[in-house]
């Protein structure tokens, strides 16, 4: 519960209609795409950076935790409310302020839905490549907070690679502009790239300048089916080693394939043990040539069948299969523990074998799919509630194997709450101490998204 | 002068042969590519991160400024010694430790010459794109400190875009690893991208993991000559607006052309008023098609002549012209004030007009060339000593115009000493305060490269 005086002050900042405190309203903002949940004391829906600045100054005075929130689609609990703190929902700050088609730049507010921005710029022949799977619902502000990746990261990079500048409210309330409208600038420390991916702990982003590209002229989509996941992993590694950089290179293992085929009621794979989806883009000749070469490489690596999407409908069916995995998996078990490890590309077959061993050792069903092109694997431990302790043990073993193979425990979901206990496995104590000194320097009262990333910073 | 006890301790850390203190030796390390100069108290040439850690601990105890140094080719004074401090020369840490051609990664020490790394990876069919003009001499450690750009940044980005991970000695002596060997990772704050471009003020980089690309299959090079710089600027903007991303898109103004032609004793331009060099790469068909389209766009924008480099020798001549500008300019005047402003691409013609006005107002010769593709212009005020006060006034006016057009005062050279006084023009006081809080958090005694970037942090 917030003090009545604080609630009154909050209402005077954002207006009574944008300050929510009833139990039903709070419930709507109490969870995200993880299984975590926590009730805030109030939800504020500001419209301007100025209002956010006032809220942060209030929070510093009252030592109240503030948790910024986009659409709540995060996969690591980054927007889970601090108990009795204030959720700062950016949902009303949702304007596309500018699309500059001479300089390939867009300026947007954080509450803009990523898919809406993509459609808008594509209608002008431009391209915003980062494409988290949740792009139809997630906000670009959330993407910036988590440094979201997606399917096209293998060729085009992640959110951070497209953010040129920010307007951000620092934890202590100052409204600052970082970076700018040019693709190059080295004027002082790179606050932009420090804040992107800092999971809402170093500032509240209120305006985002993104870089755009020309929309690729053409796209070619292939699917290849393999008897086993090892051949698929080797094929994907071979494609990249041949110097081809597809715009997407996705793999789906047997359990995920079966789940999707049941869900879609389509027999895509004729009983195959693994699937790769390869998509190339660029000028038509080049895109076709890269697709042809990829098909040849996959056949040589043991693909039993390679299918080219000849029409938009065929292409959509292939991507529908990929995009249906998450909902389809719930037919297998009521809950999933969803991790997004990354390994160097050449180690994908190794990590999948190790994950198989972990699954067998603990008697767990583990389903794998993801971005083979950049080594980023979504590994899903499917469980009932009773399986949770074994799942936790399995997660630790998978992370340990990932790090042994030169990888990272999170490629695009962030640390948040769910991986805070594991961060020290990857990052040494001195590097974590340096990160915490930066947090302390910018947020001396630890009011902004406390308890995220670092275990020791408990919610107040 | 260093205390004799400190000099003894320094010798015991790096060995007597690698601790230099004679006036002749110190002189060699007293300057860089700017006109600045300052004598250090000693030069240490460590071989390991461990030795650097010991030196930094000594420096904290004794409150001694430490200035890391690569090859001293910097353009903003970032490696100018602090008076009576210690220069930390990374010249002996110059091994290419690993080239992983399965995962497109190289691991290098900071003292490796950038051009040597490029040759090594190209011999294996791989590509390290960042190409500062000084790549034959500069070190990758210096590139990392300054976030060096170069000619290919328009298509391939800058140094920061290729650094996946670092081993770095923090100012307080801890040796930490940031990032890693994968192209994606969001595990905690992005210390890697904070340290790249921090101009040696936040840590001493001792190992660098860089991302590589497949070497492009083919390259096409064109030169186009225009009657005036405005048509050239519009042509370059038109190329990008047509959705072509050349690997290089360079412009050279009339004064630079005349200087180069005199220097090379070649009449390249037949008296033209400006030149563009366009280079495309990729699969042969695509590279040719983009070169053809660029040629057409430049002709329509008023090019009086477009020349295709038909052989390697012709290509080399074109690039030799571009690369000879810096030495050639010294035939015009004994000194130059060299700035590297950036504007949004569509404003290049505007900023060149404004620079022309500034030159006229102050009676100065200002020569412009640079990276038209990303709006990064090298503007050189050619002077005698007597012109210096007018040059300083001109710089301030050029920076003011640049910022008014939505640009940045430095695209790739860094702030260092020479632009520290101007940083507040671009970056508001609250953002600078945030940067300084980060500096203070990581370097509480301000021993690492003090006096760079921020005016108020004077050398001790």
Walk me through what this model shows.
The structure is a homodimer of 460-residue chains. The first copy, chain A, is an alpha+beta fold and 460 residues long. Chain A is 36% helix and 21% strand. Chain A has helices at residues 4-14, 23-28, 49-62, 114-122, 140-146, 153-156, 191-195, 229-241, 254-264, 284-300, 312-323, 325-329, 348-362, 388-404, 423-426, 429-442; strands at 19-20, 42-44, 66-69, 86-89, 96-100, 105-108, 126-127, 163-169, 175-179, 204-211, 213-214, 218-226, 248-253, 274-282, 305-308, 335-342, 365-371, 376-383. Chain A has a seven-stranded antiparallel sheet with strand order 15-12-14-13-17-18-16, with helices on both faces. Chain A has a five-stranded antiparallel sheet with strand order 5-6-10-8-9. In chain A, strands 1-2-4-3 form a four-stranded mixed sheet. In chain A, α8 (229-241) runs antiparallel to α13. The longest helix of chain A has 17 residues, at 284-300. Chain A is globular, with a radius of gyration of 22 Å. Chain A starts with a helix and ends in an 18-residue tail after the last helix. Chains A and B meet through β9, α7, β11, α8 and α10 of A and β9, α7, β11, α8 and α10 of B.
